[in-house]
Prior knowledge:
alpha+beta
Amino acid sequence: MSPDKDAAHLKIAYSKLDNYYGFEEFDDFYSIHYSINNNISNSIEAFVLKSEFTAAFDLTLNGVDLYEIRSSTFKESSDFKNKSFKKFGSITEVSEQEFKAIQTDKLVKTL
């Protein structure tokens, strides 16, 4: 059984402490688990139109400035004006295969 796209609905503003996890795909919807204020015991199941939600596997970094940051705190000194990571170091994008290899290597070293 799947939800009806013409059913009554509610839109909730996203908070930075809210999380989405575990979902099931239907024809026009995703069924997602939505935890409020980063509290898993305060979770609900929500049916979200696919047109209103971007699943993690659909996200890309194309066109994203990886050096852009909102603010920084270094040695207890906050900087809300400088919006670049460049003064802290460099960022290199890696392929999915490279990432998985590094994670596997870290796991082996930990064990």
